[in-house]
Amino acid sequence: MRFRLTPRETSFYDMFAASADNIVTGSKLLMELLGADMSARAEIAERMRAAEHAGDDATHAIFHQLNSSFITPFDREDIYSLASSLDDIMDFMEEAVDLVVLYNVEELPRGVEQQIEVLARAAELTAEAMPNLRTMTNLTEYWIEVNRLENQADQIHRKLLAHLFNGKYDAIEVLKLKQIVDVLEEAADAFEHVANTVETIAVKES
Predict the structure, then answer these.
(1) Which DSSP string do the residues of 149-178 spell out, in sequence order?
(2) Structural domains in the chain?
(3) pLDDT of residue 8
(4) Contact residues for 114 (Cβ-Cβ < 8 A; gap 6+)
(5) CA-to-CA distance for 66 and 90, rounded, in angstroms?
(6) CA-CA distance, 143 to 174, in Å (whole number)?
(7) Res 40: pLDDT
(8) Are 13 and 130 in contact (CB under 8 A)?
(9) DSSP 8-state assignment for residue 75
């Protein structure tokens, strides 16, 4: 790591950790949605909406700190990219839950639970990794594993699409379910964007 002669604003580390912890909360709500009947989904969606708003607040706090800090712990564009990608994850997870409620989906297709399990694991890994930005240690395994999970998510997504288009569902139901599984796939992509940004930061700081 490069030796610095100037002090750095360290509150970013805590804010990134808080944002990642909030994503874990969102992933748990996704898991809860899987086992909930239709009557309980609206309440879960409301809690997910609150978590998404908390994520927005965390992102805005990072941007405010970025705009008011003369010296930052790493490149400003990387701070912006990391905060934005973390925010995207919450946005996609909240959108998926909201669509399930708005579309009155009676039963999610087989395979969605695998998508959500991948997201939950990626959320845990991301939350564990954020505090390590302080020292830039123990991060390599994190971004390798998240990239592996994203590849796994791609395979699950393709199988889900094949299942949706096998003739079992009517056309309207296919459109509804496809939008939901596509948004969950976008969440997996956003986790990979976070991991790639962390890798970029680590390389620059080495």
Answers:
(1) HHHHHHHHHHHHHHHHTSSSS-HHHHHHHH
(2) 12-205 (1.20.58.220)
(3) 56
(4) 156
(5) 21
(6) 33
(7) 95
(8) yes
(9) -
Cα 143–Cα 119–Cα 51 angle in degrees, nearest 5: 110
Which amino acid, one-letter code, is at 13?
Y
Confidence at residue 4, expressed as pLDDT on a 0 to 100 scale: 43
The length of the chain in residues reads 206
User: In the chain, which stretches have pLDDT less than 70?
Assistant: 1-9
Q: Decide if 198 contacts 73 (C-beta within 8 A).
A: no
Please name the residues in contact with 5: beta carbons below 8 A apart, sequence gap of 6 or more.
none
Q: How far apart are CA 130 and CA 28, in angstroms?
A: 19
Q: Each residue of 146-199: pLDDT tens digit? A: 999 999 999 999 999 999 999 989 999 999 999 999 999 999 999 999 999 999
- In order, the DSSP letters of 177-190 are HHHHHHHHHHHHHH
